[in-house]
Amino acid sequence: MSLKAKATQEFVPIKEVRDGIVVLKDGGLRAIVLANSVNLSLKSEEEQKATILQFQNFLNTLDFSVQISIQSRKLNIRPYLLLLEDRMKVQNEPLLKLQTKEYIEFIKNFTESVSIMAKNFFVVVSYTHMNLKPESGILKNLFSKRNKREEELKNQLDFEEKRSQLEQRVSVIQQGLSRCGIKSAQLGTEEVVEVFYKVFNPGELEGKINLEN
Questions:
Q1: Dist. CA 187–CA 31, nearest whole Å
Q2: What angle, rounded to 10 degrees, do the helices at 148-179 and 45-60 form?
Q3: 208 belongs to a structural domain
Q4: Does 210 score more than 70 pLDDT?
Q5: Which residue range or ranges hold the TraC-like domain (predicted)?
Q6: Count of other CB atoms within 10 angstroms of residue 103
Q7: Are 82 and 9 part of one and the same domain?
Q8: Are 70 and 124 in contact (CB under 8 A)?
Q9: 3-state SS of 50-110?
Q10: Which of 192, 208, 186 is nearest to 73 (CA)?
Q11: In terms of domains, do 60 and 87 share one?
Q12: Is there a smaller number of Cβ atoms within 10 Å at the N or the C end of the chain?
């Protein structure tokens, strides 16, 4: 491992991602909830005020800290264009083929002048279990004599206990967002890893558009 890679890892506080939960080096846990956006400009003034007030009330009821993060990346439009070109090739109707070709040209010209950005909204939910005092003296010696299997079992039980507390907080967040008209979903392991990969590789483009949606 290069010295540069080792130095970079030292600045990342993440120990592992287990069952969709981010385990920090200090023992804290984090869950990431993906939330959709709400376009207030499409709502009436009364609806806007009601939505903002509901969100304010939701935040005021929380007795734990959360972090709201927005990930904005340039969208990779090329896979979408390739899909349209493939469909144009198998199109038998001349008029539809022509319309598809014109649409492809329109998308190309539009994206050359305007950057199409993909935005993801995340709520990071935290749980940190604080020990009252560090192990020392006799207790430290007793713990050091435990065999590896007992220690692994202890760590697993400790993780499950903290994860249970964290998932209760995630449930509170999702219910609060739902009352504000915001849909949300907790990310799994692969999705969490992908989020952090994009964080540490900001130069790469966002994934393709799903034509079926």
A1: 8
A2: 150
A3: no
A4: no
A5: 19-197
A6: 13
A7: no
A8: no
A9: HHHHHHHHHHHCCCCCEEEEEEEEEECCHHHHHHHHHHHHCCCCHHHHHHHHHHHHHHHHH
A10: 208
A11: no
A12: C
Residues listed for the chain: 213
Which ranges constitute the DSSP H helices of the chain? Answer: 3-10, 45-60, 78-89, 94-113, 137-144, 148-179, 189-200
Q: Which of 2, 66, 74 is nearest to 35 (CA)?
A: 66
Residues 82-96: pLDDT tens digits?
999 998 888 888 898
Query: What are 187's two structure tokens?
Result: 């990310």
**pLDDT over threshold 90, residue 174:** yes
User: Which residues make beta-bridge pairs with 21?
Assistant: 18
Q: At a CB cut-off of 8 Å and minimum separation 6, what does 183 contact?
A: 35, 36, 177
* Number of Cβ atoms within 10 Å of the Cβ of 30: 19
What is the average pLDDT value for the chain, to the nearest integer? 81
Tokens of 145: 């004599």
Residue 148 and residue 86 share a domain: no
